[in-house]
Structure formats: C-alpha cells, structure tokens
Specification:
Layout: E1 5-7, E2 13-15, E3 18-20, H1 33-45, E4 50-52, H2 70-82, E5 87-92, H3 109-123, E6 128-133, H4 142-154, E7 158-164, H5 168-175, E8 182-184, H6 198-205, E9 208-209, H7 226-230, H8 238-241, H9 248-261, H10 265-280, H11 293-300, H12 309-318
Parallel strand pairs: 3-4, 4-5, 5-6, 6-7, 7-8, 8-9
Antiparallel strand pairs: 1-2
C-alpha cells in the first residue's frame, strides 16, 4: 500500500501521514517492544513511511538522568531491514525524562553534536533525514543552536533541520541561519494556539507543519478512559484530569461528523488537521501515534477524507468548548510556544 507524499520545506518529501513513535515506549504505560516493532512494520506496509522519534522517548535507564534513547533503539530494529523506505525524524534538546516533571534543556554546540552522534549510533544509521531541536534552551540564542545543527548538514550527518514548539519570531531567526523543513508543534481541533502566529509565519517562510498529538493524545477518538488518564502522564494535564467530563462535548461533535461520513472519530480529527493546513496554505503532515497496527491503517484512511464546509465549521466551533489549557501542570508556561509569544 502507498500513500501520497507531501513536500514540506527545504525540498523534504514525506508520506502524507506520519507516525509518532513516542507511544511505543513506556510514556503512557508499559509496552512490549516486540509489539512496537510489529506496529512499525504495519505502518510501513500501510504507506506511512515518515517515522518520528526523539532521544528522550523511552524507558529511563537505571542510574541515569539523561535521554535514554530506547525508542530510537526500538525503531532501529525496523530500520535495519527497511531503511530505504523510511524518512526518519528524531530530536534533541530535552535532557530530563519525559513525564518526570523535570524538563531541563540544552542547545549549545557541543551538546548538539554529542546528541546527534548518540542518536546515529542508537538508530544504526549514517544520516538522519530530519533533525529537530525538541525544545529551546532559552538562555542560548536559537541562532547558535541552528548554526550547530547546520554543521551537521554540511557534514552529511543530517539532511534537513526542524524545530519544535518555537515561536514565530524564533522560526524566522532560525530560518535566516539555515533552511527549516518543518516545525513540529501540537495542533488539533482542541489545540489551536499556534494559529495566532506560528502557522502564518511558517506559510510565509515556506516551512511545513508536522502536528504532534493531532488526536489530542487520543482524547478526540473517544477511546480514552478516566482510568487510563489516572495511570499515565495525562493526569498532569488539566484538560484531562480536571475537565475530563466537560471536554466530552468536543468529542461528541467529532463523533457526529464521523457518523455523517461513515468514518471514525480519529479519521475526522485528522481530516480537520489537513483541512486547516490547506486553509493556511502550509503543507501539513500529522504524526498520530498508536500501539495498534489496525489503528495505523485506520488513521491512513484520513488522507483521502474530505469535510464539507458545514462539517468543518462545526469542528472549528468545537474548539470553543475546550476547557483547560494544553500545557502540562508540571512544566513552565514557556515550555510551549504560546507561553513565549
């Protein structure tokens, strides 16, 4: 099976739907690595060949505090046989553990180079297709970090550069140093703050958008339960922990549209992301994550799903029903771009 491709910035072609690998590690609860490998193979078989990971995703290693890289090692098992099929994205910059409540960052030149070498080793590859700055070290100029990343491109260790959760101003400053292929930020029916500044600037600069959590960390699918929330890092986000019941009204709208289209809620939520990207004139490739092979195939069905103007308007309006911000309570407000705009 194949999917259409999308041209992001800087000449980077990827499958029109990507796969977010974080869920295959123990971030949202215990996982089986062998199951993760099977899911990744199913993604490639379904034409979802744009795989996304990060050095910080994975199970913490005993006696260490920095990025474990176990998610990269999991993906390496698939790359060993199918590297030529994959556009591989990974990230650096967060030096604590995801979900730990401790979120230090580094963006100095020495760390950028060290992180890249470590990722290449864990992934078992010579070149990273898309290398993201995961989060900024705020007391290091972004131009300094991107200049270090650009050295990696010149050396052939990285093909394209990306940035995650940057402001519009930071994106422009970075793009003045080196072409930026993509910005990865949270974007979905219930997370739309980047539309104020970041999305228009990306369109202006010819930079693609790679929305993470396009399904609202699963909430928009209607499959997330309160019990699951209580057992994972989701319990640290107010819209899950404090406003779980109230936010079901958003899911109700998604389900109504899904019934009209004979589609699933997940497909409708992804179709909205594609429609919103088109409305802003920015190439958009969402990267939903899942542990389930059949969900990968389901999500791929969103690529060809089209919303009517009325359906799109109703989904747009659902954003006004959301209660609680998208930032996690354990992180400072400047952890996401809207906190620095």
């Amino acid at each position: 099976m194949s999917l259409p491709t999308t041209l992001l910035g800087d000449g980077l072609h990827v499958s029109a739907l990507g796969f977010g690998g974080m869920a295959l590690s123990d971030v949202y609860g215990a996982t089986d690595p062998d199951d993760g490998v099977r899911t990744l193979h199913a993604a490639l078989d379904a034409g979802v060949t744009f795989l996304d990971t990060a050095d910080v995703y994975g199970t913490p290693r005993e006696g260490t505090t920095g990025p474990s890289g176990t998610n990269e090692e999991l993906i390496a098992r698939v790359l060993a046989d199918r590297r030529d099929e994959v556009a591989l994205a990974t990230k650096f910059g967060i030096t604590g553990q995801v979900g730990s409540g401790v979120t230090p960052t580094r963006g100095d030149r020495d760390y950028v180079r060290q992180a890249c070498e470590n990722s290449l080793r864990r992934l078992g590859i010579d070149t990273i297709d898309l290398y993201y700055m995961h989060r900024r070290q705020l007391d290091v100029p972004i131009t300094e970090t991107v200049a270090a990343m650009a050295e990696l491109v010149a050396e052939g260790k990285v093909r394209h550069l990306g940035l995650s959760e940057v402001t519009a101003t930071e994106l422009a400053e970075a793009a003045a140093v080196h072409p930026i292929a993509a910005v990865q930020s949270e974007w979905s029916i219930w997370s739309r703050d980047i539309e104020a500044h970041v999305v228009p600037r990306a369109a202006e600069l010819g930079v693609g958008l790679v929305p993470y959590s396009p399904l609202g960390r699963g909430f928009l699918t209607g499959t997330v339960t309160a019990d699951r929330v209580a057992q994972t890092m989701l319990s640290k986000q107010p819209r899950f922990a404090e406003h779980f019941d109230a936010n079901q009204t958003v899911v109700d709208v998604v389900r109504e549209v899904a019934a009209e289209l004979d589609a699933t809620a997940a497909q409708v939520a992804l179709a909205w992301v594609y429609a919103q990207g088109a409305a802003y004139g920015v190439p958009t490739v969402p990267i939903p994550g899942t542990r389930s092979a059949h969900r990968v195939v389901e999500n791929a069905g969103a690529v060809s799903l089209r919303l009517s103007p009325d359906q799109k308007a109703r989904l747009d309006a659902a954003a006004g029903l959301v209660q609680g911000g998208r930032n996690f309570s354990f992180a400072t407000d400047d952890w996401i771009s809207s906190g620095r705009e």
